[in-house]
UniProtKB/TrEMBL annotation:
Protein name (Swiss-Prot/TrEMBL): Nitroreductase
Reactions this protein catalyses: oxidized coenzyme F420-(gamma-L-Glu)(n) + a quinol + H(+) = reduced coenzyme F420-(gamma-L-Glu)(n) + a quinone
Protein family (similarity comment): Belongs to the F420H(2)-dependent quinone reductase family.
Record PANTHER family: F420H(2)-DEPENDENT QUINONE REDUCTASE RV1261C
GO molecular function terms noted in the UniProt entry: coenzyme F420 binding; oxidoreductase activity
NCBIfam families: hi_GC_TIGR00026 (TIGR00026)
Domain of life, source organism: Bacteria
Entries under Pfam families matching the protein: F420H2_quin_red (PF04075)
Gene Ontology CC annotations of this record: plasma membrane
InterPro entries named in the record: F420H2_quin_Rdtase, Split_barrel_FMN-bd
Length: 144
């Protein structure tokens, strides 16, 4: 990634607090949330060029990590997705494990199985998709 400065965390207050606890405890506090596992994703802002960090539900699939760019079913995609579409080189933290990764949108042929994997853990993804005409992307994060 282009910048090693301290990331700007999500402006959503409760997400920001969750990220702080996750970072300060090296993943011991915050990796698990409401029966799900959470990773921290740091992208580079497409306009600012500065690191931006958010917390996302993930599932592991064959050594890679899968997340959903749902934004709760909003018609516009989340900023982190727009950032990684511009620059797919990201940083990931899963518990105490921190590593660089390359992000990509799941291909059409692999998306249904990955969507099912994610919706199995967070069924609201199906509700989010029903709320919008936007095709909600599934993102694959692979260690680089």
């Amino acid at each position: 990634m282009a910048s090693e400065s301290e990331p700007h965390d999500s402006p959503v207050q409760w997400v920001n607090g969750h990220i702080r606890r996750y970072v300060e405890s090296d993943g011991a506090d915050g990796h698990e949330w409401r029966g799900n596992t959470i990773l921290l994703l740091t992208t580079i802002g497409r306009r600012s060029g500065k690191p931006r960090r958010t917390a996302l539900i993930y599932r592991e699939d064959g050594g890679r990590y899968v997340v959903v760019a749902s934004k709760g079913g909003a018609d516009a995609p989340p900023a982190w997705y727009l950032n990684l579409a511009e620059n797919p080189e990201v940083r990931v933290q899963v518990g105490a494990d921190k590593f660089p990764a390359r992000a990509r949108t799941a291909a059409a042929e692999e998306k249904p199985a990955l969507w099912e994997l994610m919706a199995e853990k967070w069924p609201d993804y199906n509700n989010y998709q029903a709320k919008t005409d936007r095709e909600i992307p599934v993102i694959v994060l692979e260690r680089s």
